[in-house]
Design brief:
One of its GO terms (molecular function) is nucleic acid binding. By secondary structure, the chain is α+β, with helices and mostly antiparallel strands. It has one domain: Ribonuclease H-like superfamily/Ribonuclease H (Nucleotidyltransferase, domain 5). The chain is built from six helices and five strands. It has a three-stranded antiparallel beta sheet with strand order 1-2-3. A hairpin with a 2-residue loop joins strand 1 and strand 2. The two termini are 31 Å apart.
Length: 157
């Protein structure tokens, strides 16, 4: 999960983005945006991902945030047929790719800008995720977009 800020009449507000990144094709599979850094935001994102990918049973990599370490989330993982993977405290190996995405979106669309409404910030995030998945070429994927890499996989599978 990553935090973003926007301003209304000079007052700073927070917005949180929770997302799942597929390690194979680097696609953002699911995301939710909310005003609170809470378990509901993560659960909604996870439920959306499972609903739209019912046959997927991946390893779920995350950090050790309370949203991912509680019994309810563990039950959701088990019910979805997934295994959870978390690195030790102060080691970001499992969550490194997601942290990389947070850096990319912030570097390319957030840092150096001031968002003057929640809508403006939400629109930027949603437009960027669409761009990232469908238009942003990635060298690690053989100069394909994440969606093109995903489509290539589906042809072989």
């Amino acid at each position: 999960m990553s935090e973003f800020h926007y301003y209304v009449n000079g007052e700073k507000h927070r917005l949180y983005l929770s997302a799942i990144l597929d390690l194979y094709d680097r696609r953002i599979v699911a995301y939710t945006i909310g005003d609170s850094n809470n378990t509901e935001l993560v659960y909604n994102m996870f439920d959306f991902a499972v609903k739209n990918n019912p046959k997927a049973h991946p390893i779920f990599h995350s950090d050790r945030g309370y949203q991912y370490t509680n019994r309810t989330f563990h039950s959701k993982l088990v019910a979805a047929g997934m295994t959870q993977s978390m690195s030790r405290i102060a080691r970001c190996i499992d969550n490194g790719p997601m942290e990389g995405f947070w850096g990319i979106i912030k570097r390319e669309r957030y840092y150096g800008k001031k968002f003057n409404s929640r809508k403006e910030l939400v629109d930027m995030i949603e437009n960027y995720i669409n761009y990232y998945n469908n238009s942003r070429l990635q060298r690690k994927l053989g100069v394909l977009t994440p969606f093109e890499k995903h489509e290539e996989f589906l042809k072989v599978a």
